[in-house]
Amino acid sequence: MNTLWEFLSMSDANVRYVTLGSILLAASSAVVGCFTVLRKRALVGDAVAHAVLPGVCLAFMLTGEKNQLILLLGSFLTGWLSLVVIDFITAKSRIKEDTAIGLVLSVFFGVGILFLTSIQHSGNENQSGLDKFLFGSAAALVGQDLVTFGIVAVLLLLSVVLLYKEFKLISFDVAYARTIGLPVRGLELLLTTLTVLAVVVGIQSVGVVLMSAMLITPAAAARFWTDRLGVMVVIAAAMSAFCGAAGAFVSYTAPAMPTGPWIVMLLSLLAIFSFVLAPKTGLAARLLLQRKVRRQMMRENILKTLFLLGEAQDNYSHSYSNKQIRDRRELPLLRMKEGLLVLRRQGLVTKSSQGWALTDAGKKEAQRVVRLHRLWELYLTQYLQVASDHVHEDAESIEHVLTPELERRLEELLDYPTQDPHQTIIPQQP
């Protein structure tokens, strides 16, 4: 705690530059990255990040100096050119976009490495430090860099705020955006330019190799926590800002640890955490939901089996043993016993020395499931022309998820039937 307080109240200007610069870079990149992810162009960020290297090298080769503004301008031009080339290849050839991205990434990056190697053997004394564009060096940030980061961050955030509705529309429904007269091509070009700008500014901190992670990872992590774009943007920016500050803190407490890779590492950990533990959409939540659904299906299948056994004897209060239930329908023994105990606690079945029997409430629930099954079988035969002896399996799956609204719709379509395709009576609503 004392170390963290020391970090927060530090007087070293360079450490403050690194911390604030990392926060601004991470947050602004995440905001733009949300739209890149939603437009399914995540790999484009990686291509741009690798394509800026030849621009940096060319700018240095032409001027012979490491002027920050000129280097950024050179990297912006080649980054933007890479996107133009990707679009041109995709539009004018049979090559798909993912292949075009791979081609552009490898070619531009290879040319950049070639230029960098040439510069390193040129003897120019000013070339020292150019290799940091490969892997980044956040610790080398100075006050002028912070001003640049601040200007770019404000520009990116202001653009997103002013054109939020337009960017949202082209991210989800380009066709509708064109229909209502939005300049879709211009908006896509602007969003692409903002993406390039975010990448160009960030390479000095984390390098071309890791910059795509800064753009994509927080957006991908935030997507697990919400279905609303505005909330997703805020979560992604907050995650990135936190990881930016945390990465700077790690470098401050352990000088041998680089800031940029630690920012990406922390973002990756957050992404893994989100993938596994996010509510509703996380892996754990989905597994729990699947388990809940399987158990519910098992209980409904048990009720349906008891109903069918009673229907055959016209006696729904009769008791049946585990063997009789399993003879009527093959059910896993352990899961069936577990399901029967749950149904007993719910008051849907009773247990006697002769076996298990439906209660009045259980009969109503079983009758509902059987009714949905037979309605769906009839729908498949009448509207989809499926043979009556091939509809049972489909009905077995769908009967557990049909809602009351769909049930009423089925009845209307089928004109309130009384028999299924096998001439078996369809139970009426309990």
TrEMBL record:
Iron-sulfur among keywords: no
Domain Iron dependent repressor metal binding and dimerisation: 359-427
Pfam families per record: ABC-3, Fe_dep_repr_C
Membrane topology (UniProt): Multi-pass membrane protein
Claim: Transmembrane is one of the keywords in the record: yes
Keyword annotations of the record: Cell membrane, Membrane, Transmembrane, Transmembrane helix, Transport
SUPFAM superfamilies associated with the record: ABC transporter involved in vitamin B12 uptake, BtuC, Iron-dependent repressor protein, dimerization domain
Transmembrane segments: 20-38, 43-63, 69-89, 101-119, 139-164, 176-197, 203-222, 229-250, 262-289
Family, per entry: Belongs to the ABC-3 integral membrane protein family.
Name recorded for this polypeptide: Metal ABC transporter permease
Organism: Rufibacter roseus
Lineage of the organism: Bacteria, Pseudomonadati, Bacteroidota, Cytophagia, Cytophagales
